[in-house]
Amino acid sequence: MEPQENNKNAAVAKLREWDAQVVTEVLEFRGETTVVVPKQHLQRAADYLRSEPSLGFSFLSDITVLDRFPLEPRFEVNYHLLSPERKQRLRLKVRVAGTDAVVPTVTGIWPTANWHERENFDMFGIRFDGHPNLTRILMPDEWEGYPLRKDYPVEGYR
């Protein structure tokens, strides 16, 4: 993805107007807009995007993680948002260091984040600070490690 200023996107313009600190970078790729947000501003930006009537990103469709090992910051946590009224999509991206893989939870903003965050915790080891029940959801409780990390052994730990 190429970094690029995007003044045509109303959501990006409103977000910058509201608080320029929450927008680190804007990426455009194949007609989709991604806003890179510092993790300390994630909850504020998410709450604004959901509650601002002119934007209405009321639906969190998914949370995905990208492991960029061995690069740092190692992880990218992507929040896929939808505004049903405006028929628009927006992605929030938070970059997280491998040594501090903690992101604030957004379950208080979008309740659907609950299982998405648990899945990403289970598969990648990303901790969602403030999550009401951050436990494994797919793997057995006694499972060691996080199987979707790039440094996880193909045959598992022995």
Describe what this molecule looks like in 3D.
This protein is α/β, with parallel strands linked by helices. Helix content is 20%, strand content 28%. The protein is built from three helices and eight strands, in the order E-H-E-E-H-E-E-E-E-H-E. The strands form two sheets. Strands 1-2-3-6-5-4 form a six-stranded mixed beta sheet. A two-stranded parallel sheet has the order 7-8. The termini are far apart. Mean pLDDT is 93; it is low at 1-6.
Q: What radius of gyration results from the CA coordinates?
A: 16 Å
CATH homologous superfamily placement of one domain: NADH:ubiquinone oxidoreductase Nqo5 subunit
| Level-1 CATH class name of one domain | Alpha Beta
Structural class: alpha/beta
Please report the number of helical segments: 3
* Helix content class: 10-25%
Helix/strand order:
EHEEHEEEEHE
Strand content: 25-35%
Distance between the termini: 38 Å
CATH architecture verdict of one domain: 2-Layer Sandwich
User: How are the strands ordered across the major sheet?
Assistant: 1-2-3-6-5-4
Looking at the structure, the CATH topology of one domain is Beta Polymerase, domain 2
Low-confidence stretches: 1-6
Largest sheet: 6 strands, mixed
Q: Report the principal-axis shape.
A: globular
Attribute tags:
158 residues, alpha/beta, Beta Polymerase, domain 2, 6-stranded mixed β-sheet, 8 strands, disordered N terminus
